[in-house]
Write a structure and sequence with these properties.
The chain has about 280 residues and is α+β, with helices and mostly antiparallel strands. It is about 35% helix and about 30% strand. The mean pLDDT is about 95.
């Protein structure tokens, strides 16, 4: 089975750059065991694609979190990733989901993009969720933060045993403004012809050849995308230390043991009375 891949590409004579991402395994691992409604699965799939595209776009080393939060049926949805394309994500619901658009899912809310580079200062961008689709919300973000014309196309499939997600990204290069705008309009018109099933099921080279065969797209080496939760017993112990031994032992007296479940991968960590005493000794 094909690995999940992020592809970057440029054009021989056009001042526009692009990205194409296709995700299967990582998406399935993120939603495994969570029993999300299909609309929420699709939302997380688009958010996963968006986060992958952003890591490549922003050219940083470190961590990134793309979070949606609102007062609608979905309280929040987040994908955490890094420049190595290690991803995890989760959504929290507070009422029954009845729609599929961003306003129907999130209500009134915000998209918060937090970038924590390995070196340098943390950056956070906040954009109100005023559009119907996540792609449009992200285009608003790029307009505000980078002032570069940007378009995104997302596709998800949540039918059957396995889910899939894919995305296409175009952005003008900050060179000759008039030429780059003309180049962008040309490529945008071609990209608007992409069908969801093509984006989801065809390999990257075939997709780009079908869309831009006269413009000679040049693919770089792809980057693999993986699900990596990052939770561990050691990290859980560090969190327990902040609670304090007395409070933890009191909980064990009531419950018999302490169970802590990871919100992302649902792995359960169990601690007995002896475990707690050993931690603090």
């Amino acid at each position: 089975m094909q690995p999940d891949l992020l592809h970057r590409y440029i054009f021989e004579k056009l001042d526009v750059r692009g990205e194409l991402v296709q995700i299967d395994h990582t998406f399935n691992e993120i939603i495994a065991g969570h029993d999300y409604p299909q609309a929420v699965q699709a939302l997380l799939g688009e958010l996963l694609v968006a986060t992958s595209l952003l890591t490549a776009t922003l050219k940083f080393e470190g961590d990134i979190a793309v979070q949606l939060q609102g007062d609608g049926p979905v309280k929040y949805a987040v994908i955490n990733g890094d420049h190595q394309q290690n991803m995890r994500g989760v959504a929290r619901l507070q009422s029954e989901v009845a729609g599929t658009t961003i306003p129907e899912l999130m209500g009134k809310g915000y998209m918060v993009i937090t970038i924590t580079p390995t070196k340098g200062e943390r950056y956070q961008g906040i954009v109100p969720l005023t559009s119907d689709s996540l792609a449009e919300c992200l285009e608003d973000y790029f307009t505000q933060s980078e002032q570069l014309k940007t378009r995104l196309w997302f596709a998800t499939s949540t039918e059957g045993e396995r889910v899939k997600a894919a995305g296409l990204f175009l952005q003008v290069l900050p060179v000759d403004k008039e030429k780059s705008q003309e180049d962008f309009v040309h490529l945008e018109a071609l990209s608007n012809t992409i069908k969801d099933e093509e984006l989801l099921d065809l390999d990257a080279q075939t997709v780009l050849t079908r869309l831009y065969h006269e413009d000679n797209p040049q693919l770089f080496e792809p980057q693999e995308i993986n699900f990596v939760c990052g939770c561990s017993r050691e990290k859980t112990i560090n969190a327990l230390v902040n609670v304090g031994q007395e409070a933890l032992l009191a909980d064990i007296e009531k419950q018999g043991e302490i169970n802590i479940s990871c919100h992302y991968c649902l792995k359960n960590y169990v601690f007995s009375k002896d475990d707690i005493k050993a931690i603090f000794n």
